[in-house]
Amino acid sequence: MTETRVISIREALNEALDEALRTDPTVFLLGEDLADPAAGVNAVTRGLATKYGADRVMNTPISEAAIIGAAVGAAIEGYKPVAEIMIMDFIGIAMDQIVNHAAKVRYMSGGRTTSPITVRTAVFAGTGSGGTHSQSLEAWFMHVPGMKVVYPSNPADAKGLLLSAIFDPDPVLVIEASRLYGVKGEVPVGDGHRVPIGKAVVAKPGKDLTIVTYGQATALALQAAERLGEEGVDAEVIDLRTLLPLDMDTVLESVGRTRRAVIAHTATTVAGPGAEIAAQISAKLFGILDGPVQRVGARFTPIPARASESAVTLSVDGIVDAARTTMGAMRV
Amino acid sequence: MSASEDSTSGKTPELGTDVLRELWRSMTREEALDTRILKGIKRGELATVIWPSRGQEAVSAAIGQVLRPDDRLITTYRGLHDHVAKGVPLTEIIGEVMGTAVGASRGKGGTMHIADPDHGVLLTTGIVGSGVPIAVGVALAAVKSGSDRVTAVTFGDGATNTGSFHEGVNLAATWQLPVVFICQNNLYAEMTPVEDTMAIEHVADRAKGVGMPGVTVDGNDPVAMVLALTEAVDRARSGGGPTLIEAVTFRFEGHYAGDSAPYIPAQQLAHQRELDPIITFPRYLLAHGFTQVELDEISAESVEAVEEALKTVLAAPLPDMEEIRSDVYADGLVVTHD
Question: Which of A151, A199, B75, B181 can bridge A175 by disulfide, Cβ–Cβ 3.0-4.6 Å?
Fold first, then answer.
């Protein structure tokens, strides 16, 4: 049995970076404020510059396009750069580099050049930072052939997915949630822990309803499942862990059993990841569904200032309501 | 005063005979490629698109002469001359222009995205300015691996107005990386003259703002270009950091094949015709020991080489669906739910 210990997501991510830097000389980190003693707003890189030096943990100017561009160039030459975009809202500045270059150089060169970069970024939703520092923008990247997108919900997945991303031959966007950095959980001790990219996991089994979720919404979905349990509804919760490629096999297997589905995420409901998942469920399981597939996410407004933020973002109540709607439809 | 004007009166050329010959060979190949494809498009023979660089041959030829085979080059959608100069085989270039299976990217890249790492061409970008930060990363990799390889990146005057350019040159200067930034200033950003988009006269002045040397060179003069590039490449290779070179040249055709360029004033066009490197460089060569027969022979070989390559390309198939769907991900992963 694997020995584990309880650490936070921030510590798990730090351990992953530490392992990658220690075991592979082609790995290096770059981004804003990464080096000690500041170690960044997110503090995920704390201690690593001291341990590995300024050449392996590289502080950059506030230049998101250059951070990702430099990562792409180094990756083409065989390095495994891990670039940090401090807050996900800033990723727009680097969008060209990620979408037009990192994701496509393999294809457009017929495999002659490749760009297996890792981009770490943090969703600051829930920090009260307002419209330009709180967005969940994962759907942007799910449109891009050539990308992979992962969004861990717990410390073991955070470590295992980040390590898989760094050593993956394709560009991977790793989305972290600032609200989850302090969340603790069991993580295997020692090197070699990996979580496969593209595989969802059943976070809680159930038989009446499937809640499909990922990232920071997973905890809310599990709370919703508990509340539903009190109402006599046994909900299964699937943590996707990877958004691109989507593990629809696991989703369809589950919904095929429960016959009802709710998709919950912190991104906006409109054109959010749930739209794609709901469409696929409907297309493939239409004949056996006992209720309409429900999507629940953030309302379609910019994120308001601190006091009102919770009024528009995903809540346990919202997930429970969506579940009741699809359960109620069955009885009609 | 350009180097070739400077030396027409003298007896000894600044560069050896072999270098001069290769410059002419490269320039004539570039011109033949551009001209032939453009002609094919205009008369309906070739269904494709290029962004012509007719007139800019001297800049590319000089880059090809100064860079080592293992030096890296990042270029742009107006980069066919750069590809030729760096040694990418004509069949692979034209094959990609036509999107056929014999192209450098097996027909999946197109004119805007030709890569040939065997000849150091790592990337051609279709997004204005975006190659600059990538070149910085390529140069960073050279430093990290202890190589003395130099990375050159070419772009137009329009690119120097993008955030990518400014972010990239600043990072390269801050980290003192072995990059040579080469602005092919052809006086038009797409369809807009350079004076409408910049308050400064010389792109090279942008170097001052980030703390690197910047130099403006007559981009129609291959000798001047070789000398300036040699200095910049030597500086980069010896650890002296990046340089911004502004090569002032001209684009005789429109932004893309089919753009008749009504925005280029007749007077400017007439003036630039007199500076066309394909016209002026032979005068220099003739003054430095070459014969007209030899120059014509090289020129004819270039036209022939382009015709041969085009023939091969036109006989080649398009990539099949299996090819079209490969190289999206490394392991052949296909997201099958589409």
Answer: A151
**Using the beta-carbon criterion (under 8 Å), do B115 and A77 form an inter-chain contact?**
no
Shortest CA distance to B67 belongs to which of B184, B226, B181?
Answer: B226
Contact A159, A15 (CB under 8 A): yes
**A332: confidence class by pLDDT, cuts 50, 70, 90:** very low
Which pLDDT value is given to residue A331? 46
* Dihedral sign computed on CA atoms, order A96, A99, A102, A107: negative
- pLDDT over 70 at B174, yes or no: yes
Contacts of B109 in chain A (CB under 8 A): 108-110
Helices B131-144 and B163-175 pack at an angle, to 10 degrees, of 20
Helix (H) or strand (E) holding A226, with range, is helix A217-230
Tokens of A163: 């390590």
Entry field: residues in chain A:
332
Q: What is the DSSP string of B105-122?
A: TTTSS-GGG--BGGGTEE
The nearest CA of chain A is from the CA of B315 a distance in Å of: 20
Alpha helices, DSSP H only, in B43-201? 57-66, 80-86, 90-97, 131-144, 163-175
Please determine, for residue B5, whether its predicted confidence score (pLDDT) is greater than 90: no
The whole-angstrom separation of Cα B136 and Cα B170 is: 10
**Looking at residue B338, what is its pLDDT?**
57
pTM of the model: 0.96
